[in-house]
Amino acid sequence: MTTPSPATISTADQSAGQLHQGMFGTYRITAADRREVMAYRISLLALAVAQLGCLVQWAWAGATWIGPWLVVMAVALGLALHWIHIYLRPLHQALRLLWLLGVGGGVALAYQAGPAHMGNTLLAQPLWIMAVGPYFAALTGLGFKEFFCFRRLEAVGVTLLVPLLLMLALLGVVPLGMEGPFWFLEAALLLVLAAGKFRLDPAADVGDKSVFQELEHRRRSVR
């Protein structure tokens, strides 16, 4: 997704009713577009808050009963991936598939270990990271999209830290239980990223609608 011109990226909603010039023609940002953008931003913020809450509980009360936080994280990322605007449909579907696989792995972990012991099982048996890993791959993809579109430095942190920390834990280089400070850093970066989204004009998150419309037209023409 490419970003609109700097004039359309502001601290206020200036896109309502305006005619925008895109790569393949003109387009307008509709009320439905603005609702989708707000739903995406709220979902992303909920994800960041839930992840930070999960880490706080893990650090100060132990890994027992972090399951509810994980449920909120799963739902929030799923909703964010539903509302996110990505030009390429196969890429969008791939992120959703990764999310679904990761959630399935989480359900398997909860069934095997019990909801109260998911965190402790991850600590004791790092191979379970492979089961829930696709979820974090989807999160990494979301972070990459945010960096690609907006060049946000905090998005770089999310994109790099998540796969790096999981890989180090999976390979046994750095135990998951010792990565806490770096996961807190990643969660803080995600929170900054999510909160900062609310300062942008909705047109920034929608992107060039003429590209969406052109790709949809080509897809239908192939049928």
TrEMBL record:
It comes from the Bacteria. The chain crosses the membrane at residues 38-60, 66-88, 95-114, 126-144, 156-176. The keyword Transmembrane applies. The keyword GTP-binding does not apply. Keywords: Membrane, Transmembrane, Transmembrane helix. PANTHER family: F3H9.20 PROTEIN (PTHR36716:SF2). This is DUF2301 domain-containing membrane protein.
